[in-house]
Specification:
The radius of gyration is 20 Å and the shape is globular. Helix 3 packs across helix 4 and helix 3 packs across helix 9. The strands form three sheets. Strands 3, 5, 6, 7, 8, 15 and 16 form a seven-stranded mixed sheet that branches. Strands 11-10-9-12-13-14 form a six-stranded parallel sheet, sandwiched between helices. Strands 2-1-4 form a three-stranded antiparallel sheet, with no helix packed on it. The protein has two domains: about 160 residues, Quinone Oxidoreductase, Chain A, domain 1, CATH 3.90.180.10; about 140 residues, 3-Layer(aba) Sandwich (Rossmann fold), CATH 3.40.50.720. It is built from ten helices and 16 strands. The chain is of the alpha/beta class and about 325 residues long.
């Protein structure tokens, strides 16, 4: 079978698109014919060797997939051949990566794809959608009528946060780097969009939320806690989910006197049960059109190295070139 894999860490050029043996099907697994995968910032970190990771080479890249069940192993009860499925949180912890024509996946990590939803769309919201759901529901506990601010409303996670927060009844303020991206944010449901390149973000947030922000979702790798904490409401909650090497100053006094809380989490620590609850909600929202995929471009799986170059430019070098996810068709 064809796959995109690495035999060592390094720049995007270390990615090989070539033949690997088809996966062996074990009890409790489904063999899935992959239709679509996507690229996430974590893929860049692992491929580049920027985070400690145990990998057995050749290492197949990718965290998410959408496709069709080809064969089921012993003990499978939820799926049968021909079922359309999607998965996330793969590619580590002994689980196979997804950048391949076929992948053997443990049943607990598979979820049904709604009939009226394209594979490209469900895979584009898989990891980022689960991240947004867990952050909003389990950690921040966003309530209807609250004000939410999210940095970057067209990014993978940011676009899902905007849509889910509106579904939950919040007033959503976000940022964008251009008029085009601002328009996309509004189409996703943002109530207010701040052009961070030309406007003073802190001043605009104070104007738009004079009583403070209830939930501040930080997507930046180097957050400015001084400004963010100052803009939080009484008992405001701040969510951080990026910036492994960041060591910013933190205004302890202003933070604790307002009874605020800080929630850091990594989606890959979530159990299959927790992700399953998020998947149920995501499937329902995709099926009724409440949640829409934000896809920048679709490329063939053979272009995995180019996709990684684009994602690396956006994630590490802040190129601003992407407005949504990169999806690869197997």
């Amino acid at each position: 079978m064809k796959a995109a894999y690495i035999t060592r860490t390094g720049p995007p050029e270390v990615i090989t698109y070539g033949d690997l043996p088809a996966p062996m099907l074990e009890p409790g697994q489904c063999r899935v014919q992959v239709t679509a995968v996507d690229v996430n910032p974590i893929d860049v970190y692992w491929r580049a060797g920027l985070v400690p990771a145990r990998m057995e080479f050749p290492f197949v890249l990718g965290r998410d997939l959408a496709g069709t069940v080809m064969e089921v192993g012993q003990g499978i009860t939820r799926f049968r051949p021909g079922d359309r499925v999607w998965a996330t949180n793969l590619g580590f912890g002994g689980r196979s990566g997804t950048f391949a024509e076929e992948v053997a996946v443990d049943e607990e990590w598979l979820f049904p794809t709604p009939k009226n939803v394209r594979d490209e769309d469900v895979v584009a919201v898989s990891l980022v959608g689960v991240t947004a759901y867990l952050g909003l529901m389990r950690h921040a506990r966003l309530q209807a009528g609250e004000v939410l601010f999210v940095n970057g409303g067209t990014g993978g996670v940011g676009s899902c946060v905007v849509q889910m927060a509106k579904r939950l009844g919040a007033t959503v303020i976000t940022t964008a780097g251009s008029d085009h991206k601002a328009s996309l944010c509004r189409k996703l449901g943002a109530d207010q969009v701040i052009l961070y390149k030309t406007e003073d973000v802190s001043a605009r947030v104070k104007e738009l939320a004079p009583d403070g922000v209830h939930v501040w979702w930080e997507t930046l790798r180097e957050p400015d806690f001084e400004n963010g904490v100052a803009l939080l409401a009484m008992r405001g909650r701040m969510v951080v989910m990026a910036g492994r090497e960041a060591r910013p100053a933190f205004p302890v006094g202003p933070f604790y006197v307002k009874d605020c809380s800080l929630h850091g989490f990594a989606m890959f620590n979530a159990s299959s049960v927790e992700i399953g609850a998020a998947a149920d909600a995501i499937n329902g929202w995709l099926a009724d059109g409440t949640l829409k995929a934000c896809i920048d471009r679709v490329l063939p799986l053979a272009a995995a190295a180019e996709a990684h170059r684009l994602q690396e430019g956006s994630t590490l070098h802040k190129s601003g070139e992407l407005s949504g996810k990169i999806v690869l068709k197997a």
